[in-house]
Amino acid sequence: MITVLLLIFSVIAGVLLGKYFGKKEKLAKNLLILSAGFLITICLNEVFPQVYTSEISHNLGIFVIAGVLLQMILEALTKGFEHGHFHHHNEHNILPVALMVGLFIHAFIEGIPLASEEHTFSPYLLGIVFHNIPISFILGAFLFNRQEGHKTPSYPSLLIIALFALASPMGMLLGNYFDPNLQPYFLAIVGGIFLHISSVIIFESNKNHNIDWIKIGLVILGVSLALIMHLFHYHPTGTHLH
């Protein structure tokens, strides 16, 4: 129950931030960079070790690559919302239906491995939560910017927000019905998604290729937070997420 509430709250909090601070693109970018540092560390220290120490680790690299390719396909629908490729001048190029479908699939797949977690506030869960906030920030800014002048949000906007907020919990619910032996495959796919998103954000070139010390600092901060969580979190043996 706490897991579901955290997932939903992270989306709602991000959307509200986007509604009231959506015109501050620098804030959205900094949140994304911070979450990317956190996410790539979770991917390398939590997800991949679980994948490659499982009893069926043979050929799981193919599923990691599949996750990368899947995310690239989803970005054709979302236009890069997951890593901040959003600008107000091209918002009309993004169809709400395509955005809704892309974000839902993205979050739904991330939620499936949560069914096998045995501990609350696991690094994997918090990695999703940390990533949800900046995505939802951009989503809120996009949706509410489209309807400036309206006192209440439109039905399609509320539907997109609700589906995104419920996607990971729905994925977790479905994950309870899968064979536990399939867990490494889902983790491998999610690992590929995490790796692609975080690496795009972190390694994206700055204007004129100048050194961005703020960006470096935010990445280090995100990595440090994830490492602290990794060091102080209980790591049981077995193939389940912890």
UniProtKB/TrEMBL annotation:
It is a multi-pass membrane protein. It comes from the Bacteria. Keywords: Membrane, Transmembrane, Transmembrane helix. It is found in: Membrane. GO terms for cellular component: membrane. GO terms for molecular function: zinc ion transmembrane transporter activity. The chain crosses the membrane at residues 6-22, 31-48, 60-81, 93-112, 124-145, 157-178, 184-204, 216-234. Its main location: membrane. Coiled coil: none annotated. The keyword Membrane applies. PANTHER family: METAL HOMEOSTASIS FACTOR ATX2, ZINC/IRON TRANSPORTER. This is ZIP Zinc transporter. It comes from Chryseobacterium potabilaquae.
